[in-house]
Every structure is written in C-alpha cells, then in structure tokens.
Amino acid sequence: MSSVLRSTWPLLLGILLLMVGNGMQGTLLGIRGSIEGIPTFLMSIVMSSYFGGFLLGSLVVPGIIKNVGHVRVFAALGSMISAILVLYAIEPNWIFWSILRFLIGFCFCGVYVAAESWLNEGASNESRGQALAAYMIVQLLGIVVAQALLNTGDPAGFLLFIIPSVLVSLSFTPILLSAKPGPQFETIKRMSFGELYRASPLGCVGIFVMGGVLSVVSGMSAVWGAQIGLSVAQISVFVAAAYAGGLALQYPLGWVSDRYDRRKLVFMLGAFGAGVTFVVVLLQPGTLGLVIAAAFMGGVANPIYGILLAYTNDFLDPSDMASASAGLLFINGIGSIGGPLITGWLMGQVGPDGYWIYMGVMLSGLTGYAAWRMTRRRALSPDEQASYAVVSHSTTPLALEALLDEAQSDDPAETREASEY
C-alpha cells in the first residue's frame, strides 16, 4: 500500500479536497434551508436533484470525454463546481438550489470519471486493487473532514460557501499536474434490467433499496437535524458519525462476506439497521444516542451496499462487467433520486421521525427479501465467491467496472456456476 500511496498521492489529495467540498455543500444546504424557512419537502427536492444530475452524468460524461478529452472535461466541470458552490449563497431559493444541485451532481460525476480513469490507468495490474481501495477510503474520509469545517463559520453567511469553492479550485492543481493522458473508452451500454435481475434478483432489489437509504443519509440528515433543533456542531458530528461508521466497518464486514453466505450477512445487517431505526423512534434518545445510532446506520448501510455489489458480481461473467456496472449504477441512481423525495414527504406527514421510519421500512423490506431469496438459490461456497471491494455510494461506472473486475481476478475459482433461480 505504501508504494501505491507514493505514486498516487497527488491524485488522492485532489480527490480528498473535492470530497471535502462536496461533503460541506450537502450538509450546509440542509442547515441553510432551515434558516431560510424552506419547507422540508421542497428541501427534499433540492437534495434529490444532485442524484438526478449524477445519474445523467454517468450516462453522458463518458461520451463527452471521448470527444474532447479528460483534461478539458475535468477542468471545465471542476470550474463549474467551484462557481456553483458560491452561487448557492446568492439566492437561497429552492428552485434555484435544485437547478444548481442538479448541475453540481452532473459535474461531480464528470470529475470522478476523469479522476478514476487516471487512477486506473496509472496503477499497475498488481496495485490497481489497492489504488482503488485507497480512492474509496479517501472519498469517505473527505466527507468526514468536511463536517468539521462546517463549524468554522456562520451557515447564514457566505464564508461556508466560499471555503468548499476554494478547496475544489485547489484540488485541480495536484490532479492536473499528476495526470497522464486518460485511456480511451467507449460509452457503456447498460445491461437490461431483466438480464441483471435474472443474474441476481437480491442484488438488483438490494442496490435499489440501499441507493435510497444512502441518499437519505447523505442528503437528508442535515435537513432532519435542523428540523429537530440540533446545532450546527451537533449536525456535523451526526453526519460525520454516519460516514465514520461506514469507513470503520467496510473492511471487517467485507472480510466476513468473503467467507460467509452474503445473503445471510445482508439479512443480519439489514435486521440490525432496521432495529436501530425503530429504537430511535421509540426511545427518542438524546444527542449522544443519536450520534451512536448514526454510526451504526453508516456502519451497516455502506457495507451492505458493497456486499450486494459483491454478491451480484458472483454471478456475472467477466465479459458482462462493463454493461452490468452501468446497469447497477442506474438502478442505484433511481433509488437515490427517490429516497430524499419519499423521506421529505414522510417527514411532512409524521414529523422528523419520518427520516428514521423511511430507512427502517426500507431495511426491513430488504431483510425480508433476503430471507426469501435464501430459499430460492443455493449458497455459494467461499471458493465460488468473488472478493469484496470497498465501494463508495458515489462510484461511477468506470470505477465500479474496475472494482468488479479486480474482485473477480482475486477469485480462486476458474468458473462460477449460477444455480437455480
């Protein structure tokens, strides 16, 4: 790993700065929206817009890069991100913010694709897995660091919008100075939903569900925190705890998933996560209890997403990797768009508890479906399973394809048998 860090640190540093900027804007808007008196459901539209833009970017950006090149796309979209982060403070209006969030989601997808292609191209076959793992860890770490910076200014002012803009601008320097010409790649045509579902029903349903859950954690946590009267410091600790929990448990649970029936692990983690949400609703804990609950939720949700991708990968042929990765992320994107909208509506109907109720219902549904799927298909042995890979919710098709391919290359089995559906 040390050799990987020595060769990729400029790129990883740039990604860290990008993620700090991205992590700040998501939480900050939730807090500022409450200050401006924007209703919860309208804020859910603002938050959902990011994932709509990100989904469009995953479909369109590879073709743009193919036509004009990685450097131009990265510089153009990065400049737009820096400008948008300042524009938020000019007009705190939910329609204006929704447009900007859609655009910034599109732009972040583009810069991720460019950065991931450079990372993938610069790593050797032997180090690619470690480089991608470091990249995913840096993404989560950047969001955690972002929450601390929220306490450096007044969310009702301009400073907290300027800081992420400056950080994003600074991120260009190490990335562009270290970047090599990116690899040529074709626009990816996603596998049909029918083909994906036949390969892994649990994977498709679960990735859709977890897209909704993770988008609520990243998009609606600050909105919920402001609604119940948490301070900026308390909201930042809550959000940081969710990502820190995911960061801490990715590797341990991934290690277990390589040696255990992944469906049973999804069942147990889903049941535990649902239990956490129902305990919060019933007991209404104080700030410390909420932070612990956030750590548990993040520690469950992020690894479940990675485990479901690994489980789906167990039934994919290497020749289907590119189209499957695009299809899986499209399913994830649809779930991500819907999660904040449903949660915002639910919070308007039942109050702040709607935040926890939504995640509890979704995780309960996933738990029940995982239990049913265990009766429909035999369990794979550890030798038949591909390796688990650390995955971020903001992964693009390019990185996901590389991660799935790397995981399969670590698989000791030469063939993989799909059993009865």
UniProtKB/TrEMBL annotation:
Residues 199-421 form the Major facilitator superfamily (MFS) profile domain. This is MFS transporter. The chain crosses the membrane at residues 40-61, 73-90, 96-119, 131-150, 156-179, 200-226, 232-253, 265-284, 290-311, 323-343, 355-372. Signal peptide: none annotated. Pfam families: MFS_1. It comes from Paracoccus onchidii. InterPro entries: MFS, MFS_dom, MFS_trans_sf, MFS_YcaD-like. Keywords: Membrane, Transmembrane, Transmembrane helix. The keyword Membrane applies. CDD domains: MFS_YcaD_like (cd17477).
